Structure formats: structure tokens, C-alpha cells
Amino acid sequence: MLDDMLDYTEHIRSRPVWQPIPPEVRANFQEALPQHPADLSAVHATFMREVLPYAVGNAHPGFMGWVHGGGTPIGMLAEMLAAGLNANLGGRDQMPIEVERQVLQWVRELFQFPDTASGLFVTGTSMANLIAVWVARTRVLGTEVRKTGIAASNLRLSAYTSAGAHGCIAQAMDLAGIGIDALRLIPMNSSFEMDIATLRRAIAADRHAGYTPFFIAGTAGSVDVGAIDDLAALANVAEHEKIWFHIDGAYGALAMLSPELAPRLQGIERADSIAFDFHKWGQVPYDAGFVLVRDGELHHATFAAPAAYLKRDTHGMAAGSPWPCDFGPDLSRGFRALKTWFTIKVYGTEKLGETIANTCALAQYMKQRIEMLPQLEILAPVSLNIVCFRFRCADADTINAAIVVALQESGIAAPSLTTVNGQLAIRAAIVNHRTARENIDALLHETISLGETLTRVPK
Ligand SMILES: *Cc1c(COP(=O)(O)O)cnc(C)c1O
Predict the structure, then answer these.
(1) Where are the domains of the chain?
(2) Which residues have C-beta within 8 Å of that of residue 373, sequence separation ≥ 6?
(3) Residue among 122, 223, 231 whose CB has most ligand 1 atoms within 8 A, to mutate
(4) Architecture of the CATH domain 80-343
(5) Structural contact between residues 62 and 15, judged by C-beta atoms closer than 8 angstroms
(6) What are the φ/ψ torsions at residue 359 (nearest 5 degrees)?
(7) Which residue among 67, 274, 290, 416 has the greatest number of ligand 1 atoms within 8 angstroms of its CB, and so is best to mutate?
(8) Which atom of ligand 1 lies at the shortest distance from residue 220's CA?
(9) pTM of this prediction?
(10) In this predicted model, what pLDDT tens digit does every residue of 212-270 receive, in sequence order?
């Protein structure tokens, strides 16, 4: 198994990025609950034949869809160690939790947060954003809200984020019981950053209408185009208005690892909370999201609960309180910290930062190439590692949507789609450390060739 996966990574460049799942392969996964044992080698062979070839391919250098990390063999081996230990990091006195605390300490250092800041590994930024909303809710409504619920308060809460923010911010409002309607989507300026003057006006209008503004979510690396909100300006607004300042830095926050990119995140060190993923730009295998909260006590007060079966002690296995389960909704938790710890230790932050900066340099290379190709046009500023472009033609939305599907089915490159200023865009997010100029060249070459074929055929 180990050999197979090392071979998979080593020879990934000779594979298609992605290929459609044959119907008979899909059908094989509708068998009845197995009663009798099967040979390990037979089950493994099924995996090799029917699962491995039909993954989404984000380890492949030609994968540029959505925002997916590439992973590394070191992360993979660390996962094996974690699975071997079968550690449960909900609590109790154990070194695996010290590993997680070590990573938390590094995260504090990276974002210049105080030692009293708390943090937690979670599935991903969707969960990390939700946890931040819960803690911010506790700050404005008090810990009493945990008993009485939001409805018992006569405050009408309102929150603010950019129109370009990820949909999971709205989902967090929904899941926290505050409701999506309480979230104001502030329009963006021409650089796709939240417009600060409009934000100020929206807060004032809400206060005037009797709302209690409680949460501002800035974005560091927007999902559509990779824009970074003016975090220092947002920090000023939040400080002046006494509103919780959260940052969705799902992939962008780790730009802090690159000395050349870090200055663009100025203001991040003033946030009340940051959500980000090690599984995107950090190249840690899925999943490894993280939430960092400046006020560790408030974070604890939002989740900690007495339970007889979780009683703490000063000695024995029940020592080491507070436990990770006191900082989030999960009790049983895997050892996500180990693959992250290995990745940071083995590669070091310098190398990880260079990798991040390199994906941005590749995006600039891609932009320059597109500007030199008359068949293509750029649709949004290239701020970080995301390039939105399209093939120029009549009925461009339909043709470009067809180009993206054909690109994915070609196995050569896999961008995804988005809409920029009402126009359908081919979106290439360069996240994988394996991606190189030749993959960019192949994507552009194939886009033009498919575009020309698709526009040549009469409809
Ligand atoms: C990926 C992403 C998310 C969601 O993170 P998950 O880890 O997929 O839950 C949120 N915000 C932004 C900006 C993202 O890029």
C-alpha cells in the first residue's frame, strides 16, 4: 500500500488530472453489506483499480480548480503514524495534545497573537468561521445565551462581510441561529476588496434602525479572484465600533509565511479571530483547518461544559485541562496536528513560504501569457494565485463553460468556473507546490485549441 501511494505521487505527472468514472465502476460500489471476510489483497486491488484512478486529482500539478492543496508524501506518512496511534485528541493527558499545542504556539507566533490566544484544529475553514461566529455571539450576548438561546435576547444582531466572501460565512450565520438575513454583503471596490466607506455607512444605518452590529468578517484571499480586504482599515472600523473582527483567511492567511507577501496582510495581527486551512496553501493533506481566537477565556467559556464522565484531575490521565473539547463542538477528534507538525518541521517555514510565493509568481506568469495571446482575455486583477480569464468569442458564457468541461475531461488541466462582474470566467487557482510553468502553458494551449474547435462548429 505504501509503495503504491509513493509510486502514485512519483508518477502523477504521467496520469490524467481527472477522468470520468465509468458507470460500471460506480455500479460496483452498490453492493450489499459484506457479511464474510475478504482478502486484504483483493480489497486493495479494488482500491487501486476502481478508486485511485478516479479521484479529483488535486495532487496533480495540472489541477487548478476551486482551492485545493496538493499534499506531500511527508504529510501522508505522518497520517499513517497518526492512524497507527489511533489517538483521540478530545482530551486527557497525552503528548499528541502537546503536539497540537505546539502548532497553536507556532500559529500565535506567525500571526503575532498573545500567549493567551486559543486555537483548535477543525475540519476546515467552514467550521472555523462558524466557531468564530459562536464566540463573537457569546461576547455580545454573554454566556447566558448558551442556556437561553439567541431568541431570548431582545438584541437584533447584524454582521458584515464582502460581497466576494465565501458562502460559508452566510452558512455560519444560519447555523449559529442568527440567520442569513443578518449578514450584510458589502459591495466591493474595483480591486474586489470590501468597500470601507460603504461598510461604515451600513453599520451606521443598522445602529440607527436598532440593530446591534456584532461581527465583521474580512477576507484574506477571496475565493473568486484572490483579493485581500484592507485588513488594517477593517481593524480600525471594528475597533472604533467595538465589533468583533474576524478574518476568513482560508487559504490566504498562510501568505504570512512568505516575507514578500506578509506585508499585504497587515492588520491581520489585530483580528479577534482568524480561520484558515493548512490543507490549502500549507500543503498538509486533508483535512486540517484551524481557528485562532485572541480571547482564549471567552473561547473556552463558549464551549466548556461540565460532564461527570469528562471530569478533570491534576494527576493521571484526566489531567491537562483545559482540553481541546472545551474549545469547539467536537469531542472525539483525530490527530490532524501531527501531519501539520511534520510538514512545518520537515520543510520549515522558509520553504513553505517560498512555495506560496511561487504559486503567486506562476499566476503573474499566466497573466502575462494571457495578455500576449489575442484569443484570451483577463477578467479580474491577479492579486495572489488566482487567474480569471476567458476565450474571446460570441456567446462567451456558453463557450467558456463548455471549454472548462472539455479541459477537465481532457485530463490535461483542471480549472473551474466562476462569475466575475456578471461574466463567466475560467478560473485557475494555483495552490499545488507541484504546479510549474509547463502546466500553465498546457492549460492555455488547450483552452485556445478547444475554444477554436468549439466556435468553428456551426450550431
Ligand atoms: C476554501 C475556502 C473556505 C472554506 O474552507 P473549507 O476548508 O473548505 O471548509 C472558506 N473561505 C475561503 C476564502 C476559501 O477559499
Answers:
(1) 80-343
(2) 444, 448
(3) 223
(4) 3-Layer(aba) Sandwich (3.40)
(5) no
(6) -65, -35
(7) 67
(8) 13
(9) 0.97
(10) 999 999 999 999 999 999 999 999 999 999 999 999 999 999 999 999 999 999 999 99
